[in-house]
Amino acid sequence: MSGDARETPADDGKFGRFGGQYVPEALMPAVEELTDAYQRYVLDNEDGFIDEFREHLRTFGGRPTPLQRADRSSERYDTEVYLKREDSVHGGAHKLNNALGQVLLAKYMGKERVIAETGAGQHGTATAMAAAHLDMPCEIYMGRTDVNRQRPNVFRMRLDGAEVNPVDVGSGTLKEAINETLRDWATNVEDTHYVIGSVVGPHPFPSMVRDFQAVISEEARSQVQEAADRLPDAVVACAGGGSNTMGSFHHFVGDEDVDLYAVEAGGSGLERHEDEGVAPHSASLSTGDEGVLHGARTKLLQDRHGQILESHSVSAGLDYAGVGPELADLVESGRVTPATVGDDEALEAFHRLSRLEGIIPALETSHAFGFLEREGAELGDLVVVTVSGRGDKDLETVIEETEQRDLDAAPDLEVFER
Amino acid sequence: MTEASAEPAPRVADAFADGPALIPYLTAGDPDLEATEEFVRALARGGADAIELGMPFSEPIAEGPTIQNAIFRALDAGTTPERFLDAVGDLDVDVPLLVMTYYNPIYQYGSEDGPEPYVEAAAEAGLSGVIVPDLPAEESDPLQDACEAHGLDLVFVVAPTTTGDRLDRLMARTSGFAYVQARLGTTGARTDLSEATFESLSRLDGYDVPRAVGFGVSEREHAAAIVEGGADGVVVGSALVEMVAEGVEADENPATVAERLQAAVADLKAGAEEGATRATPESQGN
Ligand SMILES: Cc1ncc(COP(=O)(O)O)c(C=O)c1O
Q: Ligand 1 site: residues with CB under 6 angstroms?
């Protein structure tokens, strides 16, 4: 049924050609153990796991989040715009939905320690909060570049008692952080759970993270029917690894008349510089090709030899060369439409939404609103956009990036000048 | 030695034919492929019974810092799969050569997706075996089929966490030898031997497949103890890669580094042989 789209995935975790379990043998027993725990606790609610998860989401996480009609945006775009307010989840992003689920699952599994990678620092922060809340030791890996551009989140993780390990390899972003977290997991696999931050990695992570994030569309679907007595024409969400999109789309996938748009980071341009090993964007759905990275077969930014390219986005949380396998498959089958929004458009959208709605969005989220600005009423009569997170963590970056540009929607920053 | 390259590549199992096998690893292209060719000849002169060559991949998740850095040096030097296979084709050593790499570069090679084109080219270049640390048995059917079709061995890693049915399935699948991972974690030279090594070896006792132990082995005495503990071979990687790194750091001539590699392999090989003698004292007189 469309309203209840949870399906037990195929045992091998394949989504069409995508997915799978491409990890070192040392991790396979842990992946098997996790698959078993996912089935028992998450899918079958053994020992009341799901009930306890929902209770934590409510009392600690602040769920349900509102679905808010955005009055001024609706007027601007001449269509009904509704915002699914994941920025109001505790910690300021949808990331807590997954982090709470996995840290709780780690407890049910008897694990003694959790580790996680983080890009924007939102997943690291969410994991650190959940770990403090549930009393679990926690270590976070974060690329050096991201440590420098998301300082408030680094401090938040430290405040919540997590160790933060900067990763100095390569471009120092999410890809390198995932590599290093996988290495830690391979070393400490017997007592450690890896709380992966998106719908990526080997099966069962893509399915399990989607199920934890599906609360977004479960709520939004009934909220929009209550508010407008109908389903939306379109759901728009930004995609890095794809947990926000999969969460926002999951319960709408069966509603064929609802268009689903995954907005990727167009960075500073959609080209590839294979000689330098760089793609100045993170549009793996729109421009990538099939390959194997971080445990799954999916769409990737890579050169013709299969070396992974360094991606780029002004938003650390979208800055990743891969994407979740289920999302890759939904794009392949035509059910989800990918789109790209570049750094400049995203920054404009950041300022515009702040001014128009009094909501300062995360830079990741701003990409979804850049898409709304471009498409407007073309998207239909009723559009739901997920506000995946709030922008407090990005203020330093936004000030810097705004000073380098001539943005229409930006406020005058002269106040900072001496 | 054109006649040598016209001969079919040796089988990986040949490495275990007389006495314990010493299997050194180097990252190909570190600091460049010409140097690698010189190093490989030195390893063979030193008494290597098989040689593993790392074909660099940008996301080496199974590797510790030493081999990660070697891989990045090799990539910076422009080591592509094509150039790697060309260099292997130029080699005229008569021990089996195995490539160790990750699945994505294998998968991307050639015009069609899938492992077949790479395996075909690898066989043509004279490689005898393939090791892919991020490809568990569950995902390995296409590569295994290709390897069988082209006469290459596909070596699987057996981890300290591999037990029960998994172990049976892996031991049934692996060909050439079983790569026994000595400890959890990543590659990297250690000064001690882990208990897990000997536990793993005893778990693998009943299988009719040669067992070579790697991950952290760096000293002659390690090689001896591992062979004494029942292993059929020893894999040494980071300790040798470290020598290459020191050579790069000091801007040394590759020939100088090659001499040191040859001496190190000879020393490790002697250790493995000592271990074999210690393991079978009474059979000496027979
Ligand atoms: C607010 C926000 N939105 C979106 C993302 C992108 O991740 P995903 O695609 O997994 O939702 C992030 C990642 O850090 C984020 O912090």
A: A 93, 95, 119-120, 122-123, 198, 238-244, 317-318, 362, 364-365, 388-389
Structural domain that includes position B60: 12-279
Answer yes or no: is B220 within a domain. yes
Could you tell me the CA-to-CA distances from B120 to A342, B108, B128 in Å, in that order? 42, 13, 11
Q: Do domains A25-60+95-209 and A67-92+214-405 have the same CATH topology?
A: yes
What does the pLDDT profile of chain B (286 residues) look like in tens digits? 334 445 678 999 999 998 999 999 999 999 999 999 999 999 999 999 999 999 999 999 999 999 999 999 999 999 999 999 999 999 999 999 999 999 999 999 998 879 999 999 999 999 999 999 999 999 999 999 999 999 999 999 999 999 999 999 999 999 999 999 999 988 888 888 888 888 889 999 989 999 999 988 999 999 999 999 999 999 999 999 999 999 999 999 999 999 999 999 999 999 999 999 998 865 544 4
What one-letter code names the amino acid at B89?
A: G
User: Among candidates A157, A57, A62, A47, which has minimal Cα distance to A107?
Assistant: A47
**Quick check: is B1 in a domain?**
no
Minimum CA distance residue for ligand 1 atom 12:
A317
CATH of A25-60+95-209, one of 3.40.50.720, 2.120.10.30, 1.10.238.10, 3.40.50.1100: 3.40.50.1100
- How many structural domains is chain B composed of? 1
Two structure tokens written together for A92 = 């300021």
Give a yes or no: residue B7 inside a domain. no
In CATH, the number for domain A67-92+214-405 is 3.40.50.1100
Ligand 1 center from residue A6 Cα (angstroms)? 22
Amino acid at A94: H
Of A217, A313, A315, A388, catalytic: A388
* ipTM of the modeled complex: 0.94
**In chain A, what are the domain boundaries?**
25-60+95-209, 67-92+214-405
Q: Are A174 and A310 in contact (CB under 8 A)?
A: no
Looking up residue B86, the CATH number of its domain turns out to be 3.20.20.70
Of B68, B104, B157, the CB nearest to A292: B104
In the block, tokens 């040798």 appear at: B240
Asked if residue B81 has a cis previous peptide bond (ω within 30° of 0), the answer is no
Cite the beta strand spans of chain B per DSSP E. 21-27, 51-54, 97-100, 129-131, 153-155, 157-158, 178-181, 211-214, 233-236
Give the pTM.
Answer: 0.96
Q: Whose CA is nearest to atom 10 of ligand 1?
A: A243
